[in-house]
Specification:
alpha+beta, HIT family, subunit A, globular
């Protein structure tokens, strides 16, 4: 997830140069996720329906996804890959940060 570091409810309320920076950040994060996990696709979601703050979900999609053409939001817990332990989440963060650092 990418969070804007100031409160804005709508992407369109941002100055154009900041919108471009946000999209650039999304692309860099997606490239890092691709380098670490090797997904076949990245889904980008910026909805704002539940949390009225500009933020992006970057969702890696894999060849073995149960419904590869559907959004993940409707998947029940039985279809999700499960929750990662805190240690695994820390490792994922480390790997993505390393991929981001390598790209810069």
């Amino acid at each position: 997830m990418l969070l804007l570091n100031r409160h804005v409810e709508h992407m369109a309320d941002l100055p154009l140069n900041v919108q471009e920076e946000v999209f650039g950040d999304c692309a860099r994060a997606a490239n890092a996720i691709r380098a670490v996990f090797g997904p076949v696709r990245i889904n980008y979601e910026c909805l704002g329906n539940q949390v009225a703050h500009v933020h992006w979900h970057l969702i890696p999609r894999h060849a073995d996804d149960p419904e590869p053409r559907q959004p993940v939001w409707g998947w029940g817990p039985e279809r999700l890959r499960g929750h990662a332990s805190e240690a695994r989440r820390d490792e994922i963060v480390r790997l993505i940060r390393a991929a981001l650092d390598k790209a810069c």
